[in-house]
Amino acid sequence: MGARSSRAAIIEPASSPTAAGLSPRSRRGRALRVMLVEPDPQYQSLLGTGLSEAGFEVAVVSSAEAALEEMAAPQMPPHLVVAEAALEGMDGFLLCEKLRSEMRTALVPVLLLASKREPFHPELASTVGADDYLPKPVRVQDVVALARLKAGRRPSEMAYEAHSARLPLAQIARALLAGARSGRVVLKDSEGFFAFRGGYVVDAAFQGERGVAAFRRLLGFGSGVYAVSFGPELHRGSLLMDMPFLSEQVLPALERFEKLREVGVPLAARLTVDFAKLVEHLATLPDDIISLVRLFDGRRVVRAVLLECRFAEVIAYEAITQLFSLGVLMPASHVEERERPPASPSLFLTASDALDTMLTDDAEEDLPIFVDEAAAAAAAANAGGEAKETREEEAVREEEETIDGEPLDEDSLEAASVPEAPAPRRVPIILNFPKRPRVPKGEELQAGLLPMGPEGPRVSDKV
């Protein structure tokens, strides 16, 4: 216990609100305050310690009268009241009704704990305005989860928002099933929800699945902001899961799954099959595992495979980890690097590009065998063009001297002396096909290859 006021024992928070994972909306620069009304010293210690370790300041009293006296002080009322229903004198139901009748405390959330549960208690708790009713024995983590969800919030809010990083879905699911309320939890950023009613999960959907598998995958893969809304869930559900099944089957498997995520293959890893290793270990693998191996096509990540396979997530994840350790599954990036095709050759080279290639160190390997022919063709084309230009110049000079036997005047000579625009130079294009390996004639006939004849044109001098 910490410091004491005149009426209550104060337990200071053992951690900051940030470290405890409280929502930023609930933090106002200081710890949120919880009023614990509990006559049992054991529950006082357990609940007080658990709430303080979660970042709450806890004021502990033993009776409803002491709680009302504490809240009558001029200081701010608590952000949450956790009270035993079967108190001596004024019980927890009357205390909740009294708080709702006072304007100053009308919006304070109230959780009622019942050491002696009666069939009419849940309905009575709803009538007096309690936020939830939890029968004992109650887990401290369930009370802490509900406190994190509701402390500092107004009961009139349509939905209580939280984040899975601060309040995991598995924790809030168990806490909601410990109570008597009905409602649903909806993920904000993906298609997923589960509905609860009177301590049962009655419906769940996630990534196209419905029922128990959807609920498991929602707890395992759901993340981000979610909203908890309270109200009647009257539609017909797809399952009926109670607290024992959740505690004994679902949550232990989820705990194994989370531990495997810390040491196993990352969920974002993209894997493919090493068929040589698969053949080596095929005799020792169960037949059902082959259907799991078929899903690894080099494009799916591990998370997508877990969502598509028909096995439970933790069993499939353990099998994937084992297959990876055997080498049957390997990163797809390794196969892509090993089987990456060579760079495609350029099909067209100009004479200048061919000359640049000849000047490189690897010219003998990179240059096609017909570059010499291309250079010779380009030289012949240039020589033919120069001879043609010489003949045209002589004809122009003869025409300058006379036209129809008459000498030209000065104006005509000037007009005739204007040179014509030079013809554009033609640059040959070289087809740069990759070299074909030499094959003996016997193998050519056997393989159906026809040798290329030397008479075929290899160089085009047309642009």
TrEMBL record:
The keyword Transcription applies. Keywords: DNA-binding, Phosphoprotein, Transcription, Transcription regulation, Two-component regulatory system. GO terms for cellular component: cytosol; protein-DNA complex. InterPro entries: CheY-like_superfamily, Sig_transdc_resp-reg_receiver, WalR-like. Residues 33-151 form the Response regulatory domain. Residues 395-413 have a biased composition (Acidic residues). One of its GO terms (biological process) is regulation of DNA-templated transcription. SMART domains: REC. One of its GO terms (molecular function) is transcription cis-regulatory region binding. The keyword NAD does not apply. Residues 1-26, 381-421, 436-463 are annotated as: Disordered. This is Response regulator.
